[in-house]
Design a protein that fits this description.
The protein is an alpha/beta fold and about 180 residues long. It folds into 2 domains: about 50 residues; about 120 residues, Oxidized Rhodanese, domain 1. It is about 50% helix and about 15% strand. It is built from 5 helices and 7 strands. Strands 1-6-5-2-4 form a 5-stranded parallel β-sheet, with helices on both faces. Strand 5, helix 4 and strand 6 form a beta-alpha-beta unit.
Length: about 180
């Protein structure tokens, strides 16, 4: 009896489900196509950008043990201030280079490097795929600086057992807390 009474309603409901199902499948298909297009365009863009050399954290630790006094070696933390919170750490003896103020920081870096023509700059961040480090490295390459990016950033350095130090209090940005 219920089937007879609600048959018309059920036909309409099934029709809507069929139409929405096709629409949903079309939308998902469109999203997949857009994602594939984005990946391809990102890869093409990467091939046009200057090549940035990467180094494993454990290899950099080994290299630090063999560095001579004639070579100036700079390890730069390029995380934005917003990534700092009280209690955060950074690679021991690294310097802060603010990616938003790269032009100003580059002038200070170049003054610091003047007496040493042979300088190695290693960059790290905490981004996925070292995004900030790669961007800053490309900027520095345009200014004729030799740079390498630490593959895996700060997490890889910690995993390799590299020495850390607390982020200086002046670099910590006190972010609002919502409680």
């Amino acid at each position: 009896m219920a089937g007879f009474v609600f048959a018309r309603f059920l036909r309409v409901a099934i029709g809507w489900v069929e139409r929405v199902g096709h629409l949903t499948a079309a939308m998902l298909g469109g999203i997949v196509v857009l994602y594939i297009l984005w990946v391809v365009l990102s890869l093409l863009r990467e091939t046009r950008l200057p090549k940035v050399e990467k180094i494993a954290a454990r290899d950099l630790r080994r290299h630090l043990q063999t560095v001579t006094q004639e070579t100036l070696l700079i390890i730069a933390d390029v995380r934005s201030r917003g990534y700092y919170d009280p209690g955060m750490h950074r690679i021991k003896n690294s310097i802060r280079v603010d990616p938003g103020r790269i032009r100003e920081d580059l002038e200070v870096l170049q003054e610091f490097m003047l007496p040493q023509p042979d300088c190695e700059i290693y960059l790290y961040c905490s981004c996925a795929h070292e995004a900030t480090s790669m961007r800053v490295a490309r900027m520095l390459q345009r200014e004729n600086c030799t740079t390498k990016v630490i593959r895996g950033g700060l997490k890889a350095w910690v995993k390799a057992g590299g020495p850390l130090e607390p982020v200086p209090h002046d670099d910590v940005e006190h972010l609002p807390r919502f409680e």
